[in-house]
Amino acid sequence: MAQETSRNVGPVVLLGPPGAGKGTQAKRIRERYGIPQVSTGDLLRQNVVQGTELGIAAKAVMARGELVNDDLVCDMVQQRLVLPDCKRGYVLDGFPRTAAQAGWLDALLDHELFDNSRPTRAWPIVISLDVDYNQLLLRITGRRSCPTCGRIYNVHFQPPRTDELCDEAHGTKLVTRNDDRLEVLQPRLTAYQEQTRPVADYYQRTGRLISVNGDLPMDDVTGQIFRILEDHHA
Ligand code: AMP
Hints:
Mean pLDDT: 91
Largest sheet: 5 strands, parallel
Order of helices and strands: EHEHHHEHEHEEHEH
Shape: globular
Strand order of the largest sheet: 2-3-1-4-7
Bound molecules: adenosine monophosphate
């Protein structure tokens, strides 16, 4: 599908449990519409690798599969959203993850809606990827990524041509994310049920939640998401 970079897309929020495909779909939206993917998980992992103050605070919390403090995450998101590449819109992947973060985002966008100097002034399009529990387990425990090029594989559904080696980055050995290990999975899913499910409920109550069947093949899910974004701007 051709790239569509001529108009504002506005903020897009992708909701869903770990392993629902938010990262994959966010990348496809980024490619099609030329807007950045703002993944709080990726930003936090970068901070951990760089050893920033935020990274030091977040590292142990992430390793336990728990959520990082709301204020720290919101500050990090705010610093990212003011960058010029977010002017036509952005895809939030992994944020908001608590009711407090959803309230904070609404307040931020509410403020922007009345700021004529901001071209992305719009409410977010909130898309929830709904996935069966057993599918989630296979997706998360099978997930591998290439530390060189970032490409994501799944040993069950999209294995590399050679076992555990990247097809593209000269055979770099694939890695499993620290928090994709089985023992960390349960706390992550609990954090989702207890803290992030209410976010979907909040958007549902306010009539802003659009649900997509995330069990469908990846390309079908992408097709549905693109249609939602096109309809929204029709
Ligand atoms: P993800 O890559 O989205 O699965 O995020 C990995 C980990 O980063 C999560 O398990 C949390 O520890 C942390 N994290 C990511 N996004 C958030 C957020 N919006 N609020 C709090 N913690 C987050």
